[in-house]
Amino acid sequence: MSAERSQVYAARRVAPSILSADFSRLGAQVDEVLAAGARVIHVDIMDGHFVPEITIGPLVAGSIADRVHAAGGAIDVHLMVERPAAQFEDFARAGADSITFHVEAEPHAHRALGAIRELGCLAGVAINPGTSVEAVRELDRVADIVLCMTVNPGWGGQSFIPTSANKVKRLRDAAPDATIGVDGGIDVETAGAVADAGARMFVAGSAVFGAADPAEAYRAIAAAAGAE
Ligand code: DX5
Ligand code: ZN
Question: Most buried among 44, 72, 201, 219, by the most CB within 10 A?
């Protein structure tokens, strides 16, 4: 990954999730949020096993990578799959700049994070609402991103779990060197509390692409989160 792209993650960012985009015009939808200032595009991968739904794979991630990179942006892959380590290489080749897997799906999280870094990507670990922050305490410095699920993964458009702000605070303590991300139910109402708690990456799907004007929705959530 270029230095410019790794800098993208250093800032506080709202990351639009294409899960809620109109896939019949995916490129245009991505362009809309890039033009509004988005620089991290979140790509949700579901396998029908770790979570019930099946979504997309490296082919679709790769189809938007060039336009995202041309705008100075980054592709953030969120693997909600069993045996995630088997997929790292394909997503890195497709253009992923960060790859996040679930600690619940990978008994060798420490090794898996190292494998992602070896592929030249930032390494992320996600935890479900029912998983303790202790699951990541030993992974500080090994993980670049800790993604706090603020809904149970599997679907877009769910309600933010209100106790998540407190969990973000505890994650800051458990993994002080990682970027803490939040994913699920993030909108203009919920972004502020998790921002105050220490979150720096705010994944938003339906609140962006479900809005009449995704660019305007992106800017409103970014303002609420104090993001760029
Ligand atoms: C949920 C996914 C999310 C999803 C968020 O399992 O990981 O990234 O796109 O969607 P919203 O913002 O609609 O809750
Ligand atoms: Zn996600």
Answer: 201
HSE-CB at 28 with a 13 A cutoff on CA atoms is 5
Q: In whole angstroms, what is the distance from residue 27 CA to residue 24 CA? A: 9
Q: What is the Cα–Cα distance from 127 to 115, expressed in whole angstroms?
A: 19
CB of 44 shorter than 6 A to ligand 1: yes
**Is the overall model pTM greater than 0.90, yes or no?**
yes
pLDDT tens across 145-156, in order? 999 999 999 999
Q: What is the mean pLDDT of the chain?
A: 97
Structure tokens given for 74? 């980054």
Mind listing the pLDDT tens digit for each residue in 185-200?
A: 999 999 999 999 999 9
Q: What CA–CA distance (Å, rounded) separates 44 from 18?
A: 7
Cβ of 204 below 6 Å from ligand 1: yes
Task: Delineate the domains of the chain, giving CATH numbers in brackets.
Answer: 3-225 (3.20.20.70)
pLDDT beyond 80 at 104: yes
Name the residue with the closest Cα to ligand 1, atom 7: 153
- CA 205 to ligand 1 centroid distance, Å: 5
